[in-house]
Task: structure prediction
Amino acid sequence: MSGKIIIITGANRGMGKAMTQKLAEMGATVYMICRDKESGSTVENEFKDKNLSVTLKITDLENVEDINNLVQEITKEQNHIDVLINNGAVNLEKATTRIENIPLEILEQTMNINFRGTLLISQKFVPLLKKSTSGRIINFSSGLGQLTEWVIILLIVSLKPL
Ligand SMILES: NC(=O)c1ccc[n+]([C@@H]2O[C@H](COP(=O)([O-])OP(=O)(O)OC[C@H]3O[C@@H](n4cnc5c(N)ncnc54)[C@H](OP(=O)(O)O)[C@@H]3O)[C@@H](O)[C@H]2O)c1
Result:
């Protein structure tokens, strides 16, 4: 990881924060992406106090212009990036919500952040990733996004009739 340039979305808390710390401790330069300026700055300062190489970039993955500005800014600062970690996401509805009760605005917001935001940021960083000798995109998912045969069997067994 030494010398690698890594972008991590959702870096102000949870697994994104933990990955930021670990990768920066291993010698990477990490760009921390999140929406919330206050918690982002607090975590950035916490890591800078430990002499870790981190830079906060406030970006809302729901906002296309924000993503464009982020890519432009980093393109001005770096001639390549090595890894993009798509970790930032929302889970706005309880897993127990029935399909007929999911509000349209929740569905749209979830798709705009988790799907469109992840796709757009990936597309737009491809040129910088291609300039790396080891460019990688790492996408975070969920057990529910991995419908293996066993999960499908478990789901069928646990399904209640509508
Ligand atoms: N934790 C679990 O049990 C679990 C299970 C399955 C999958 N996952 C997946 O693993 C990843 C990390 O999970 P976590 O629990 O560590 O996450 P978390 O603590 O809920 O944090 C979510 C992160 O995503 C960022 N984020 C959300 N919406 C954003 C937006 N519109 N623009 C920019 N950043 C945004 C948040 O930043 P702000 O604070 O600025 O909003 C925050 O840093 C996620 O992709 C999640 O879906 C987690």
Remarks:
- The two ends are 50 Å apart (CA to CA).
